[in-house]
Amino acid sequence: MANIPHYPLQGAHDLDLLTQEIGDTRIVLLGEASHGTSEYYTWRTAISKRLIQEKGFNFISVEGDWPDCFEVNNFIKSHKTDNATALEVLQTYNRWPTWMWGNWEVAALADWLKQHNNGKPEKEKVGFYGLDVYSLWDSLQEILAYLEKKDGAAVAAARKAFRCFEPYSEDPQEYARAVAFVSQDCEDEVIEMLHTLRTKALGAGITRESDFDAEQNALVAVNAERYYRAMVRGGGNSWNVRDRHMMETLTRLLDLHGPDSKAIIWEHNTHVGDARYTDMARAGMVNVGQLAREQYGEENVYIVGFGSYKGSVIAADEWGEQMEEMEVPPAPPGTWEYMLHEIGANDKLIFSKDLRHLKELEKTIGHRAIGVVYHPRRERFGNYVPTIIPRRYDAFVYIDTTRALHPLAIHQDHTQPPELYPWAE
């Protein structure tokens, strides 16, 4: 058993060393080992608060759809005038898996961000954005609404693209299956729409950010079309289309906020942990963590992985099926999570710089990854990613026993938030 240096993680004050290690890093990526664990959200919130308050980070960008997250962005910046609450705004997350962002943990974050932004000049307000590529139809509808302010070629191009997808009943996967067997697709239409928007229509928005929103929705439509077309062909290409889109969006957001801007990214470990130090590399797959390090330099990127030994999680048996709370069994011997449990059944913070002299950790070790579809009894056969831990991350947050997330769809009858921060001071 390797003697793994570690630090206690019991309260927000225990993040002092982490914020010190992050230093002046421009991009901080905060992972998660599942999309349904409460502690991953609450600790990412605690870290994000410190980065925003103490180091001036400008926005949080997440593994969520652009249109839905932009609704949250408008809420926390007080652009919405309907006096909606955070819980009401989060109802916008109505595409499966709804629990990823429609939950009490994110509601608490949104309320805090709104309060933090209150009274600040527009350029000093912290933003909240989605990096993902799934929102093909929603983005097309947002573009049409934006372009209704203008006549001519721009709105005509958007309508043409919209009509191209209409036969597929707002189901991108149906579109993907259809174009797999024919040469005709909607690629030209969405590219023309993006080009026309950029050359003729931008400037119709009230603010620079509203123009950015319109252009981003057009970019989502272009890359979503590519993603769904690649998806039916199998292999790693659809994954790469998706993560390259997320990286392109992150770059655009940093450019939007200026040369000194700083970004916090919330995504699954499989997206933030450098793919070069996992078996993804052999399959030719890249991810946001790798691309960020390559584009901005490792000294400007700090990656924090997350994981746990056992607990409970929100997930589903199959894609699109009902969510449920599931048991996460103890990690099996030989895995990263088992090793951390064996050195003490307590929550802890680990830094990769302390591990790189340990030969036992400079090889691939199984590291748990739970998706939105999960089968606890079969997890050891498909839920452990071979990982060189000290290279994949810069730091690691370990929670020995975790609790399931609190989705609004399950816990919507609460008059008060469930207890989300049992470790808070």
Automatic annotation (TrEMBL):
Cited CDD domains: Ere-like (cd14728)
GO biological process, one term: response to antibiotic
Classification via InterPro entries: Emycin_Estase, Hydrolase/PRTase-associated, UCP036794_erythomycin
Protein name: Protein-L-isoaspartate O-methyltransferase
Native source species: Adhaeribacter aerolatus
Biological classification of the source: Bacteria, Pseudomonadati, Bacteroidota, Cytophagia, Cytophagales
